[in-house]
Amino acid sequence: LKRTQFCVASRLPRLTCATMSSVPADQLSPEQKDELLCTYSALVLHDDGAEITPAAMTNLIKAAGCTVEGYWPMLMAKMIKNVGMDGLIKMGSGAGGGGGGGGGGAAAGGGGGGGAAAAGGA
């Protein structure tokens, strides 16, 4: 995989693809991969209307054939419970051009606030 891509199908008759990461997946550190997997699993659960729990995230990650350190789903689920998934998504989308990558950082607590601050200061 050169880059992680996320394709969005809307009610419109077209399909658009946006690059989600500017770094090839094989160049991410183990911690970055774990964070990204937890972020994607939380987004999938949220989109499906399912409760975002450590067990649900772990099951989804395992179903994808991946593994993460055991503390990641717990931390992510706790943060989502405290802040709310909609709030985290909004924080990550305020950074502008790097919005896809910023979303992952925001959901994992690593960069959404800075992106929102940067967007407010621009």
Give the SSE map.
Layout: E1 5-9, E2 15-19, H1 30-48, H2 54-63, H3 71-83, H4 85-92, H5 99-107, H6 112-121
Antiparallel strand pairs: 1-2
Helix pairs in contact: 1-2, 1-3, 1-5, 2-3, 4-5, 4-6
Structural overview:
It is a single chain. This protein is mainly alpha-helical and 122 residues long. It has helices at residues 30-48, 54-63, 71-83, 85-92, 99-107, 112-121, and strands at residues 5-9, 15-19. A two-stranded antiparallel sheet has the order 1-2. Strand 1 (5-9) and strand 2 (15-19) form a beta hairpin. The chain is globular.
What are the key terms here?
122 residues; mainly alpha; two-stranded antiparallel ribbon; 6 helices; 57% helix; 8% strand; globular; disordered N terminus; disordered C terminus
Query: What would you report as the Rg, rounded to the nearest angstrom?
Result: 14 Å
Described by the principal axes of the CA atoms, the overall outline is globular
Structural class: mainly alpha
Number of helices: 6
Main sheet strand line-up: 1-2
Share of β-strand residues: 5-15%
Catalogue the unreliable spans.
1-18, 96-122
Largest sheet: 2 strands, antiparallel
Termini gap = 34 Å
Mean pLDDT across residues: 72
Helix content: 55-70%
Overall strand count:
2
**What sequence of helices (H) and strands (E) makes up the elements?**
EEHHHHHH
